Amino acid sequence: MSLNELINGLYADNILQIIDMRRFLHMHPEESLKEYNTAVFIEEKLLAMGYTPRRVGETGVYASLKGSLPGPVTVIRADTDALRVQDMKTVPYRSHHDGLSHCCGHDMHTASLLGLAMALKAVQAQLKGEIRLFFQQAEEVGAGAKQFIEAGLLEGAQRVIGLHADSSLKSGRVVVKPGPNNASCDAFTIRVKGLGAHVSTPHLGVDALYVGSLIVTALQGLATRLTNPVEPLIIGVGKFIAGSAYNAIADSAVLEGTTRYVDEATRARMNRHISDLAAAIAAQYGAEAQTVFADYSPALVNNAEVCAELRDLYSDMGLELLADRPVRLGADDFAEYLNLVPGAYIYVGTQGGESTSAPHHNGLFDIDEDSMILGSKLLCKYALSKHMV
What we know:
By secondary structure, the protein is an alpha/beta fold. The protein has ten helices and 16 strands. The chain folds into two domains: about 5-180 and about 300-385, Zn peptidases (Aminopeptidase); about 185-295, Alpha-Beta Plaits.
C-alpha cells in the first residue's frame, strides 16, 4: 500500500467530522488571548481520541504522540484565534458572536490539525519518535508562539511544520517556497508631549498635534529615502489621537503604527531611525517624543532543505505545486519557531468559487472545505514520512 493510499484510508471516515469541527469553530470565534472555549473544545476532542492535552498559557493547547520506537521529534502547529471583524456571510455556520469572525482561516488550521491527530492515533503503534501538536493561541497579536517556546516545547525538535489558508490561490494549489515568505511585524507607539494654550496664542504653547502630523509625514520619507526601493517594507501609522477642543492647542498626541520588513538588519536600523526621527522633530518645536516598540514577529523564512523535502514528498499527490509567491507583508508568529528549528510554512489554496474568493480579514471570507482536508493530509503525509517504522 502506498503512503497516499494509507492516508486516504485514514481520512475516509473522518472527513465529515473534520468539517463539523471547523464549522463549530467558525460559529464560535474568540479573539486573541481569549480563546477559552476554543481551548476547551480542542481538549475535549483530543481526550476523546486518547491524547492527554495540557494548557500552554491560559488558552494554548499542547498534545504529544509517541511512537513505539525512538526516533525524530516533529512539531506541527495550528493557530486558533479569530478577529474583530463582523461576519457578513449568510451560511448556516456563520459566526454567532457579533463583531468576531474566523476570517483568516484559523478555524481551518485547527480542524486540520485535529484531523491529523485522529489519523496519527490510528497508526500510533506503527510510529517511531514523537509528534508534538501545537494548538497555538494569539497569532494575530504575536503573543502565542513565544508562550510555547518559553514552555520548552520546541526543545529537541528536528522539524517544525505548519500551514496557512490562502484565498488568493485556487483550491488544489499549494505553495512551498524556500526563503522569505512573510515580513516581520513590530507595533510602535509614539507619545508626543507638548504644552496646551489657546489657539489664538500658539506661541505660548507647544502644538503636539502639529508635531505629530509632521512625524507621520516624515516617516514616509524614511521608507522611500533610506532603504533600497526594491526591498519590501512598510512604515505605517494607523491611529492618531490629539486634542480636546476645537480652539485649544493640543498638549499631547499619540501615534500608533506598524513596521514590516523582510530583512532583519533593515528592521533594526529603521526602527532606530523612527525613534530618532520622532525625537528630533519634536525637539525642533519644543516638544518631547518617546517611541516604544512591541515585537510581534520576525520575518518568516522557510528552510530550503525542508522545502525540498516537502516538494519531493507532495509531487505524486496530483497537486499544482508552486515554489514561489510574492513576499507578503502580513506577518505570522510561526516565524518564531523557524528562527529556532528548521521547518516550513505551507500555503494551501482555499478558493473554490465566488463564495470562497473574499480576501483574508474580510467579513465574507470563507474556504473551500476540500482544501482543508487536503491541508490535513499534507501534514499527515509529512508526519508519516518521518515517523512510520
